[in-house]
What we know:
By secondary structure, this protein is mostly helical. It has helices spanning 3-16, 22-33, 39-45, 49-62, 66-78, 87-109, 118-134.
Amino acid sequence: xxxxxxxxxxxxxxxxxxxxxxxxxxxxxxxxxxxxxxxxxxxxxxxxxxxxxxxxxxxxxxxxxxxxxxxxxxxxxxxxxxxxxxxxxxxxxxxxxxxxxxxxxxxxxxxxxxxxxxxxxxxxxxxxxxxxxxx
Length: 135
């Protein structure tokens, strides 16, 4: 894929992760990560990395969706050398999401005893893995 095509795709995805509709933002965020195996895409996103991270954190705040957490883990892996300025913010938001997930599960379970269903368990594991990678 040529750089011009890649730039066109990345521009469109970057705009769509800022769309007013949540499903558009979520799908664009998941699609954007698929391109981080290309050096051009990594370089393209680098100048706006802080903004992109904040968008992902907001999406994770809006919807507890395992694929978004996985996507954030990919960003942390790809930009591991540049993630330090955002580490506190990322860990704080991920830990809030983790606590909210556990609290919701307790509330739905009807008591202090915590039983995680498989989806909740995967999401909580993903959150903890992402926090460990940032640290």
